[in-house]
User: Fold these one by one.
Assistant:
Number 1:
Amino acid sequence: MTKRDFFRIVLRLFALYLLLLVIFNFIPSNISYLSYELQFTAVLLILGSSVLMILLFIILLRKSDMVIDVLKLNEGFDDDRIDFGNLGSLEIVKIALIFIGGFLLLDHLPEFLHYCYLGFKKEISASGLNPFEAPALSDFGDYFRWFISGVNLVVGYLILTNLGRLSRFIIKANQSQKNI
């Protein structure tokens, strides 16, 4: 595998991770924000940010060679090839899924545990939440973010526990797409 191929894979994996963050984190949390304050500027800002992130996803996915050239990622190495040994496409997809599932778990576990702590304290404590904690769990949007972080944890866990099936499905879908 050449350095250029390696950086293409890394950029495309980052693009996939960016898309997952937009779908499972950015859009749901901003929809919850719009549920209690619907203003034109907020809608415009959220739509603009979403379009910008999706454009970044498309650029990273379709124009990865241009990004490699602009950032000069393949310069400064002694050898032009990177040897991974006997790694096939199935193993590479498994490694990518491990990174994606791990990122989902690591990104959302602290937020989920924080909301669990606040929810538990709110229900158990006689005095409820103190003035510094109360704004973090006071409206529907906070419970929605708690739910979204839980969904992201479940998705990350399912990705990590079903690596074999998911990687075979992705390889099979890629091969069927090439045959079309």
Number 2:
Amino acid sequence: QIIGLLRSNLKRFAVTIKDLTTFIETDNFTHDHESEEIDIHEVAGNVKQDLGNLITDTNARLEIVSDENLAFSFPKKNFKSMLYNLVSNAIKYRSPDRTPEVLVKLHKTGGKIVLSVSDNGLGIPAESQNKLFTMFKRFHDHVEGSGLGLYIVKRMVDSCKGQIKVHSEVNKGTTFTIVF
């Protein structure tokens, strides 16, 4: 029992170190730094591969929808990190009552890029939504994590002068929308 507890704590510590490393790497981020053309299907494919075990273990369905020939520049590493965190959370915070479904949409509106990640998961209570992007804030103990993922996403969005919004209903799901 003690060994199991130690393993669990070491696993959580490793996740926290990984997330802190990502945070440090993105802390000095500027939108112009290493921007390159983004192919959403390539980046989403990489994220899907990175989350392969989680997707397989949960039978999650991940769908990517984007405007045809959509072209935009962004630091690829940071775009992948944002997408990874949002998709990972969508699957981790799934409802036990249904198969996880995640929809990633990317389009251009009024000269701005709009990325949305929607799920059919647990949802987030309205009273917790204003604390979502706080460092080390976690709302569910049954899911492994450090409480840094959404904080990092918010920092990346802020640094490119973008906006992130959340719409969520408990037991129905959540949509994160990023405009930049």
Number 3:
Amino acid sequence: MLSLQTKKILAFLLLLCSFAQAETRFVNISSSIARPLGMGGAFGAVQDGVAAIFYNPASFTTFKSDNEDYEKQAFTFIANPIAPIIVTKDYKKFGSDTDFKVGDGIRTLTYFVKSLIFSTRRIKGGFIFNEESFYAKEKFGNDSFLNSEHFDFATSTTAFVNFSIAQKVKLGVSASQYSIRNEKGAEKVDGLSFSYGVFLKPNKRYNFGITFHSLSDSVKVLEERVKRLADNSLNISYAYIFIKNLNLAAELKNLTAETGAAARELHLGIEYDLFENLTLRTGFYKELNSSTSFQTWTFGLGILDQNLWKSHWESYQERNYLINYALVFEKNKSVKNFWHVLGIYYRI
């Protein structure tokens, strides 16, 4: 049974999803990056699990025991309990146009698998499946929060690996491929996009990150829209543990990008662990070299830390929340957009 405190938190989360009725609203429910977005996208120097891959594959981390004199080798399976419900509900869009069959059931189960990870003390790698894109047609409404539109346009599969070359230095690389559907349901596989990262931890209190992104032509607009990643862009990041439960982060994004909506931005983020099962996040980012008034404010929550019911050897270095939520508010002179991003992932 859920505690009274947890029920109150979930009720507050649902209230946030009904916020901003007068503005354009979009929703994303199969994304791994609610934590980074809640921190304003200033995430290239922040250590995390799967969420880190999309900002700096070198900052991906897993078990606490990796920092100890113990060689742990393990496979980790991360489940997405929401996606199979959606795919089952609208199975005809993904497979047969008749009654639900065995093949449809097998396909539904594939959406249950969000990530597979292999981890040793020195090398970590794995795959992330069915990552939802940030595409504007996903309007928030009573009939669209849990439907197949979240997988209609574009989802991505990502492979990644990182390794330690010294006690305080890690390198990482990831490759992502989009599956894009047209209006008739036909699926096309797009070219690969790559991210390369360096992660430095000179001190227990602060980290540095350097990343470079090379994007496939047809998905550039998807990566720029909310992630704020540009093609051939260099990013420099810094994260600092101010006090035990307070993390500060800053990032200069897209320093080498020549064109694109996400050129040269300053991102700032704050994360505070309020309780064992609740973390608050906020962030801000703004274009530095633009005459427009574009700016974005973000807010986020992390709910129910899975480390609390794991053994020491199964606990992650970072808090590993079952539920992550982010609200992204984009604003300029003519546009106000609210993005609601919800991720519910169970680590097995």
